Amino acid sequence: MGFYESVWFTWVLVPLFIFLARVSDVTLGTLRIVFVSKGFKMLAPILGFFEVFIWLIAMTKIIQNLDYWFYYVAYSAGFATGNYVGLILEERLALGFVNIRIITSDFVDTLVSKLTSEGFGVTSMPAMGARSNVNIINCVLRRSDYPIAANIIKETNPKAFYTIEDVRAANQGVFPSRTLMRGNGNFPWRKAK
Questions:
Q1: Which of 93, 120, 143 is the last residue of a domain?
Q2: What is the mean pLDDT of residues 37-52?
Q3: Structural domain boundaries, residue 32
Q4: Keywords on this record (predicted)?
Q5: Whether 7 and 65 share a structural domain
Q6: Buried b (16+ CB within 10 A) or exposed e, 126-136
Q7: Among 170, 111, 103, residue whose Cα is nearest residue 142
Q8: Same-domain pairing of 42 and 101
């Protein structure tokens, strides 16, 4: 009995290969969908190529071995894990822009002042809420800068209501430079391209 007919190969290595292939192709698929929604026109097709290529390899192993139920489990587990890994990676990459819309009647000037002092562009306007007059503050920022802005909101006005929405593209605007992330205290302004 050769290595390819061994129990080790059939019940451990092939299912592990199928699992890892599925994790890889579903992760790529998740990232591809995110890149399409963010407008990365060149990167999405490249990821799509590798996604389908890996999927074909995994499916070939399944089709060649239809009698092994454990391969189906590995395939399904790889799909589920790939979705999770893809979402975690997408969250870590923090690509694109978001709009934070803050609705509050308290500490408006302080909040606007703190956001602008950190280099964020802010637009504030008065509005009528369900119970009283409020202010709406809009702040379009890089998704990677969201934790900084969220901390400012929580520290300045912890009861503020705010929403975060994806922005496909931003033309012009005020964004903190990358030096802000290093905490050196310099906040050079630059416009989005």
A1: 93
A2: 90
A3: 3-93
A4: Cell membrane, Membrane, Transmembrane, Transmembrane helix
A5: yes
A6: eeeeeeeebbe
A7: 170
A8: no
Q: Model confidence over 75-116: pLDDT tens digits?
A: 999 999 999 999 999 888 888 889 999 999 888 999 999 999
**Pair 21, 80 in one domain:** yes
Buried b (16+ CB within 10 A) or exposed e, 97-106: bbebebebbe
Q: Identify whether residues 124 and 64 lie together within a single domain.
A: no
pLDDT at 166: 87
* Cα–Cα distances in angstroms (integers) from residue 42 to residues 14, 25, 139, 143, in the given order: 33, 18, 28, 21
pTM: 0.69
Nearest to 118 by CA among 135, 134, 91, 100: 100
Report the CATH number that the domain containing residue 131 is assigned in CATH.
3.30.70.120
Report the chain's C-alpha Rg in angstroms.
Answer: 24
* DSSP of 107-147: SHHHHHHHHHHTT---EEEEEE-SSSEEEEEEEEEEGGGHH
Asked whether 161 and 102 are in contact (CB, 8 A), the reply is yes
My answer on whether 101 and 89 are in the same domain is no
